[in-house]
Amino acid sequence: ELGEFNHYMQKEMFEQPQALGNTLEMLSGAGQLHPGIFGADAQGVFEQVDSVLILACGTSSYAGMTAKYWIEQVAGIPCNVEIASEYRYRVSVPNPNQLVVVISQSGETADTLAALQHAKALGHPHTLAICNVPESAIVRETALRFITRAGPEIGVASTKAFTTQLAALFLLTLLLAKGKQRLLEADEKDYLDELRHLPIAVEKVLALEPSIQAWSQQFANKHHALFLGRGRHFPVALEGALKLKEISYIHAEAYPAGELKHGPLALVDAEMPVVVVAPNDEMLEKLKANMQEVSARGGQLYVFADGDSKVRSTDGVKVLAMPEHYGLLSPVLHVVALQLLSYHVALVKGTDVDKPRNLAKSVTVE
Ligand code: F6R
Question: Which residues form the active site (predicted)?
Answer without folding.
Answer: 361
